[in-house]
Write a structure and sequence with these properties.
Cysteine_dSase, alpha/beta, three-stranded antiparallel β-sheet, 11 helices, pyridoxal phosphate, iron
């Protein structure tokens, strides 16, 4: 059987490959015989200590208290619970839920399901209309607002500190999604949020682990039947080895400082310039500077995104297309639509912590040929 070379992985927008530090931590945890953290025997006490330590480490990275950290699961159910819990806790205030138009689909879906959803638009770079946001959160009957630190699809940073201040001035709690920023930007002071969301898969931890940090005094109520775990804030037994691995991954990326993000920023700059220069009729979107370091999205005219993704995969490059929240590339991106950009023929790149300049140059060498062949088959070359 002939070995097939592994593709160059450029789909870090959907999750970073598991870091060695996370894998080692998981192996250590599973081999230590840690038990149920609610038990009083030694394995149970070890598990409880591990969870307490993990909460402390996460809290330190996001400027919170350990007892504010709720260990959860993947991002979608975590985001849904954050929105639903605040809507429940604030139901006497009103039912309006304000979000940007480019939030994660789980946030948009929860806002529509648990209240009267109001969306605030963005400019062509994907940045929030701050004046419209300020007016929206100041309206009567607003229960909560939701915003990302940075968009998970085009990478544009949002004016999250100013948006949080507008919420604070209006007395409205803010759910801040820090998923895309963790491990890439400083997250110890992200403004006056009330609930912060994170997901370990985004920074090289286990994809099964997320967290919801609920500030003390926030009127969040569990939107599901409570049990004895985590003071009734998240149901079910915690996967201790996975949580330990998630904390180890966050420690590792934080310890790396600015070196890897700076290198990734330079690689995406190289991709941005190369795509624009080498491929005719292409729209490179998002803010070129004020962004997270690892993401780039572009759209090629006259080309179907799914076809382009498959052809690039055959050429040895794993990329994404369509909406970053969708399991199928056939769904147009609501983010690009909100920006007024092309929603078809788009490719989303996410460079990993180990992506090299040689891999980026190889992608830029292959891309014009692949796009040209697809256009030629369609008769638009």
């Amino acid at each position: 059987m002939t070995d097939v070379p592994a593709p160059v992985f450029l789909d870090c927008s959907s999750g970073e490959p598991l870091l060695p530090e996370a894998r080692d931590a998981w192996v250590l945890a599973t081999s230590s015989g840690w038990g149920d953290p609610q038990r009083l025997h030694r394995p149970g006490r070890l598990a409880a200590q591990a969870l307490d330590d993990a909460r402390s480490r996460v809290a330190g990275h996001v400027g919170a208290r350990p007892d504010e950290v709720v260990l959860t699961g993947p991002l979608a159910p975590t985001a849904q619970a954050a929105v639903a819990g605040l809507a429940l806790g604030r139901r006497r205030i009103g039912r309006t839920i304000v979000t940007s138009a480019v939030e994660h689909s789980a946030v948009l879906g929860a806002a529509a399901a648990y209240g009267e959803h109001v969306t605030v638009g963005v400019d062509p770079l994907g940045r929030l209309d701050l004046d419209a946001w300020t007016a929206a959160v100041a309206a009567p009957g607003v229960a909560l607002a939701c915003l990302q630190v940075a968009n998970h699809e085009v990478g544009t940073l949002q004016p999250y500190a100013a948006a949080a201040q507008a919420c604070r001035d209006a007395g409205v709690p803010l759910v801040l999604d820090a998923t895309t920023a963790l491990g890439r930007l400083s997250t110890s002071d992200l403004g006056g949020w009330s609930v912060l969301l994170g997901w370990a898969g985004a920074y090289g931890g286990p994809a099964s682990v997320g967290f919801m940090v609920v500030r003390r005094g926030t009127r969040w109520r569990a939107p599901f039947p409570a049990d004895d775990h985590q003071q009734g804030r998240w149901p079910g037994t915690v996967d201790v080895p996975a949580v330990w691995a998630a904390a180890a991954a966050l420690d590792a990326v934080a310890a790396d400082g600015t070196a890897t993000p700076a290198r990734q920023h330079a690689l995406v700059d190289r991709l941005r310039r190369g795509v624009a220069a080498r491929v005719p009729d292409v729209d490179v979107v998002g803010d070129p500077e004020d962004r997270v370091p690892h993401l780039l999205t572009f759209s090629a005219l006259y080309v179907d995104g799914e076809t382009l993704t498959l052809e690039l995969d055959r050429a040895g490059f794993a990329v994404a297309s369509g909406s970053a929240c969708s399991a199928s590339s056939e769904h147009p991106s609501h983010v690009l639509a909100a920006m007024g950009a092309l929603t078809h023929g788009n490719v989303r790149l996410g460079v990993t912590r180990t992506t090299t300049e040689a891999e980026v140059d190889a992608f830029l060498d292959v891309l014009p040929r692949v796009v040209g062949e697809i256009r030629s088959r369609l008769g638009v070359a």
